[in-house]
Amino acid sequence: MRIVIVSDYAVVNGGAAKVALMSAQSLAERGHEVLFVGGSGEAEALFCNVPGLTIETYGMPSNHEIPIRQRLSLALWNPEVDRRVRKSLAGYSTKDTVVHIHSYRDVLSVSAVTAVRDLGYRTVFTAHEFRLTCPTGEHFNRQTQQICPLSGGSLACWGTQCTERGWAEKAYQNLRFVRQRSRGNLPGVFDHIVFVSEFSRKIMVPNLPGLRSSSVITNPVEFSQPEPASAGPDAPLLFIGRLSMSKDPVLAARAAKEVGIPIRFVGDGPLRGEVQAANPDAELLGWQTPDQVRAHLQSARALLFTSRWYETQGLVVLEAIANGVPVLCADTTAASDILTEYGGGFLLPAQDLAGLVEKLTPFQDPTFGEELGRSAYRRFWASPPTMENHAHATEALYARLLEGPQT
After folding, report:
1. Which of 172, 260, 293, 323 has the highest Cβ tally under 10 A?
2. Counting beta carbons within 10 angstroms of the beta carbon of residue 70, is it exposed (0 to 12), middle (13 to 18) or buried (19 or more)?
């Protein structure tokens, strides 16, 4: 089996690129011939010295780095990407090769997808976000700060300015969305779509006409099993993420203040000042390294996940459960799937200060959530979503596609 993994970025700058690179490494280590194609960035040395893994990068700018007129033109059709993808795949037989696309919108454009389609490869796409069903990829109105119920690309969608940057950005996003569905024949061009949570699949599938087949393969955790967290008498609540309206850190700050429990914020963003004003005693640490984040989890009383938008998985909630930390989670997010599967916390409506305060009150006793977190910890580590398990599931999917007829 030969595998080609395609990603906008060859450098870890987010969840999609990270999973794409880790997957390429793991599949090569399992004995497969793997080609990783990245539109932008240079891969870290960690990924460059893996036997069986070839990394090819195009050195192209992201759409955010070029003027909007040129961006629109290249997003609709990028002949350079079409040429380079065809060249990268030369010599790879359609009989024993699967192409797995993790991202294409920021750098490679739909031109990468159509090139793979025209060459006749069996193709998999992982939906790390909602861009197949929403022009902005969020199903979230940035003007109202509410989940958007509109069908992506509909007349109502065209008539709603939901972005932070104005109508020009909205028109660009919608034109690109229409282009990917018409010229790109998305989602029908993909033989299989992988969703990273059952929650995101339920949101997206009704808006994916022409979907051929799909499955859920959760993103992997990349650390070994730790000891379960132990909250001391002064253990704080923990919030991890960008301090932005869509994540609603101010709600977390207010709730912690009302119940009199210390809270620690790992992350930064435009609402830093509002968080500090809502709770002057809150500890704002800014962004931290992965090891520092895990250390904060190990000493946390509970994690607050107050996001207003859907999310596609909510990896920070998965990490909290993996560390035995109880979670209070908005029930409108994909992370609710994690609590449904493992337990370990409470679901509550987003933007509900009174409800959050009610659920937090028992945590005034720092030992309250200990068994809650540890029971979820035991269930999680009984069969964890490790990179090995992720690679096994992906490998099995590729094998099924290659055994089936070419379409």
Report:
1. 323
2. exposed
